UniProtKB/TrEMBL annotation:
Pfam families: TGF_beta, TGFb_propeptide. Residues 260-372 form the TGF-beta family profile domain. Residues 1-22 form the signal peptide. The gene is mstnb. Acts specifically as a negative regulator of skeletal muscle growth. GO terms for molecular function: cytokine activity; growth factor activity. PANTHER family: GROWTH_DIFFERENTIATION FACTOR 8 (PTHR11848:SF150), TGF-BETA FAMILY (PTHR11848). This is Growth/differentiation factor 8. Its main location: secreted. Belongs to the TGF-beta family. Homodimer; disulfide-linked. It is found in: Secreted. InterPro entries: Cystine-knot_cytokine, TGF-b_C, TGF-b_propeptide, TGF-beta-rel, TGFb_CS. GO terms for cellular component: extracellular space.
Length: 372
């Protein structure tokens, strides 16, 4: 049901209220209350429709047929306890549930950058000898293209060393055992660590990722080692007891195309407003109420919705529309109160492959309402 059709529904509700001889003596206040009650009922109907639409839009925009079946327990197990993710979560804590980008000039073009966090999985048996190594293979989705990679960091957690030492963190590319040379050195990092201190370390892997995206057949995974001076491997590659969330992962930032906003004007109202004209009203979406634990953050956000009447006299911005409708009043259902400007939200979530994605979901917040 279009919003303008709901407006007609309001008018019918008001018009169909029975009027008897005794009721004709009621005060104007009583009549206004009746109309206000009908308006509130329709607003509630619009809010319900908007919430249902938002659920469908999110799944559609994320190319999902249904919500991922990921419980809170699974989320806690898979969520990396790592600096880049904690920084994102801290942003939501500071900004609150209505997490939005810093406001920019609406006429400025800006690119959308999406962050994808890929969890390490066990590589194919063709690169293993006697079941080793158990780590690390990364699966890449279709959004990734070599020419759009902004940054790629491999994050590795180091267990505490028994004493102050120098750790050599080594990253090697795996190849099938049958090809002879199983390890092709990629990068190494020399790290001084203190006794009894665990830490996260990151290493730039943009170059190797670009090769994998251009030549997917070369991606057999990597092996990660972090040897201290005694030859102990401190890298957490196969998390043990109490090491949930410490497995290696890759943080990839992907650049997408530019978009352009536009300026517009409109009315803002609250739920108690007597305004009958087209207006923007507040509406908060709570993902926990949806049962969507796969959305990590925000847990709720302000989506807003449009409601109100659109008379022809309100369309002075488009006088030709007014003239056309006046000439052919039965040829149109009338102008609708609809969003004239919408903006994206930033969302951190698990996809169906249990990869963590951080990106913009377009057109999820109603910024302005108008008649069209």
């Amino acid at each position: 049901m279009r919003l303008c059709e709901i407006g007609l529904y309001v008018s019918l509700l008001v018009a169909l209220v029975p009027v008897t001889v005794s009721e004709q003596d009621l005060s104007a206040t009583s009549a206004a209350d009746t109309e206000q009650c009908a308006t509130c009922e329709v607003r509630q109907h619009i809010k319900t429709m908007r919430l249902n639409a938002i659920k469908s839009q999110i799944l559609s925009k994320l190319r999902m047929k249904e919500a991922p079946n990921i419980s809170r327990d699974v989320v806690k197990q898979l969520l990396p306890k790592a600096p880049p993710l904690q920084q994102l979560l801290d942003q939501y804590d500071v900004l609150g549930d209505d997490n939005r980008d810093v406001h920019m000039d609406e006429d400025d073009e800006h690119a959308t950058t999406e962050t994808i966090m890929l969890m390490a999985t066990e590589p194919d048996t063709v690169v293993q000898m006697e079941g080793e190594p158990k780590c690390c293979f990364f699966t890449f989705n279709q959004k990734m293209h070599a020419n759009r990679i902004v940054r790629a960091q491999l994050w590795v957690h180091l267990r505490p060393a028994a004493e102050a030492t120098t750790v050599f963190l080594q990253i090697s590319r795996l190849t099938p055992v049958a090809e002879g040379n199983r390890h092709i050195h990629i990068r190494s990092l020399k790290i001084d660590v203190n006794a009894g201190v665990s830490s996260w370390q990151s290493i730039d892997v943009k170059q190797v990722l670009s090769v994998w995206l251009r030549q997917p057949e070369t991606n057999w995974g990597i092996e990660i080692n972090a040897f201290d001076s005694r030859g102990n491997d401190l890298a957490v590659t196969s998390p043990g007891l109490g090491e949930d969330g410490l497995q290696p992962f890759m943080e990839v930032k992907v650049s997408e195309g530019p978009r352009r906003g536009r300026r517009d004007l409109g009315l803002d109202c609250d739920e108690n407003s007597p305004e009958s004209r087209c207006c923007r009203y507040p509406l908060t979406v709570d993902f926990e109420e949806f049962g969507w634990d796969w959305i990590i953050a925000p847990k709720r956000y302000k989506a807003n919705y449009c409601s109100g009447e659109c008379e022809y006299m309100h369309l002075q911005k488009y006088p030709h529309t007014h003239l056309v409708n006046k000439a052919n009043p039965r040829g149109s259902a009338g102008p609708c109160c609809t969003p004239t400007k919408m903006s994206p939200i930033n969302m951190l979530y698990f996809n169906r492959k249990e990869q963590i994605i951080y990106g913009k979901i377009p057109s999820m917040v109603v910024d302005r309402c108008g008649c069209s």
